[in-house]
């Protein structure tokens, strides 16, 4: 199995290296990742600037390709320039910080997996629910385990797995939980500060407090120390509303022609 590994914390991040060590045990791994941190860039791609790439060494060995772009750029660049053919799987992570709920929309890590899924490649995004004192080793083993699951399951084109791992001792993890994506809005607060020249600025922050008990929702299950596994679909068309509009839209046009 040939695995393309990317992330949004950059090619020098701790999480991508931990996952690389585990994935090497189950396949051939090609690392193509941003040359510096690109967290929260979502599914952006680089069209108005050139894309630079350089070979990166870690621990005195060739590790991978550092790209002056986003995670989505990395997947496209890997297939178009470095590999010249599709890998068997795309894995993105391990992200430092959770990507549950609405983070799915903002995360560069998740976008890396979505880009793989759009290109018809089985893909996984994996994130560790911690910012302080992260321990990536257990999450890395989960990533490798789920990669073998995805390799043998018929994942639909455009669908990928979004995985979040709690940052607790493995003995405290309650198991894998199949979850749906939470839709609670996040990052709704702004901290007002002053810069050294006494100009005011704002820093966006904040997550919603988790009080929900429904562990079928990723955020709640993660909070209760489950490894959450959410199948995410790239097609965001609302088919129920589509059929509703299908009846009314033509009549609406004829009645009130713009
Ligand atoms: Mn990140």
- Overall geometric form: globular
Largest sheet: 9 strands, mixed
Distinct bound molecules? manganese (II) ion
Strand order of the largest sheet: 3-4-2-1-5-6-7-11-8
Describe the structure.
- With 258 residues, the chain is an alpha/beta fold.
- It has a single domain, classed as Stationary-phase Survival Protein Sure Homolog, Chain: A (3-Layer(aba) Sandwich), CATH 3.40.1210.
- It has helices at 14-23, 71-83, 103-106, 108-118, 136-152, 218-223, 239-255; strands at residues 2-6, 28-34, 53-58, 61-67, 89-96, 123-129, 159-166, 176-178, 189-194, 200-205, 227-233.
- The protein has a nine-stranded mixed β-sheet with strand order 3-4-2-1-5-6-7-11-8, sandwiched between helices. A two-stranded antiparallel sheet has the order 9-10.
- Bound molecules: manganese (II) ion (MN).
- Residues 8-9, 39, 95-97, 109 line the site of manganese (II) ion.
Task: Summarize the SSE layout with pairings.
Layout: E1 2-6, H1 14-23, E2 28-34, E3 53-58, E4 61-67, H2 71-83, E5 89-96, H3 103-106, H4 108-118, E6 123-129, H5 136-152, E7 159-166, E8 176-178, E9 189-194, E10 200-205, H6 218-223, E11 227-233, H7 239-255
Parallel strand pairs: 1-2, 1-5, 2-4, 5-6, 6-7, 8-11
Antiparallel strand pairs: 3-4, 7-11, 9-10
The structure holds manganese (II) ion.
Residues 8-9, 39, 95-97, 109 line the site of manganese (II) ion (MN).
Concise summary:
By secondary structure, the chain is of the alpha/beta class. The protein has a single domain, classed as Survival protein SurE-like phosphatase/nucleotidase (Stationary-phase Survival Protein Sure Homolog, Chain: A). 30% of the residues lie in helices and 27% in strands.
């Amino acid at each position: 199995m040939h695995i393309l590994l990317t992330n949004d914390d950059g090619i020098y991040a701790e999480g991508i290296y931990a996952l690389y060590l585990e994935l090497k045990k189950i396949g051939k791994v090609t690392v193509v990742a941003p040359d510096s941190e690109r967290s929260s860039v979502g599914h952006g791609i680089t069209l108005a600037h050139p894309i630079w790439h350089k070979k990166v060494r870690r621990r005195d060995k060739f590790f991978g390709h550092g790209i002056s772009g986003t995670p989505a750029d990395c997947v496209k660049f890997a297939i178009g320039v470095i590999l010249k053919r599709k890998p068997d799987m795309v894995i993105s992570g391990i992200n430092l910080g959770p990507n549950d709920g609405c983070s799915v929309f903002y995360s560069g890590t998740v976008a890396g997996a979505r880009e793989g899924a759009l290109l018809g490649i089985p893909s996984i995004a994996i994130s560790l629910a911690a910012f302080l004192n992260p321990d990536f080793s257990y999450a890395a083993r989960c990533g490798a385990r789920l990669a073998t699951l995805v390799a043998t399951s018929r994942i639909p084109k455009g669908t990928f797995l979004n995985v979040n791992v709690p940052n607790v001792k493995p003995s405290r993890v309650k198991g894998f939980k199949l979850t749906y994506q939470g839709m609670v809005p996040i990052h709704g607060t702004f901290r007002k500060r002053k810069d050294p020249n006494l100009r005011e600025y704002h820093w966006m922050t904040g997550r919603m407090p988790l009080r929900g008990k429904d562990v079928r929702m990723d955020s709640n299950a993660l909070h209760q120390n489950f490894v959450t596994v959410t199948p995410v679909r790239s097609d965001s068309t609302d088919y129920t509303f589509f059929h509703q509009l299908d009846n009314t839209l033509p009549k609406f046009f004829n009645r009130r022609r713009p």
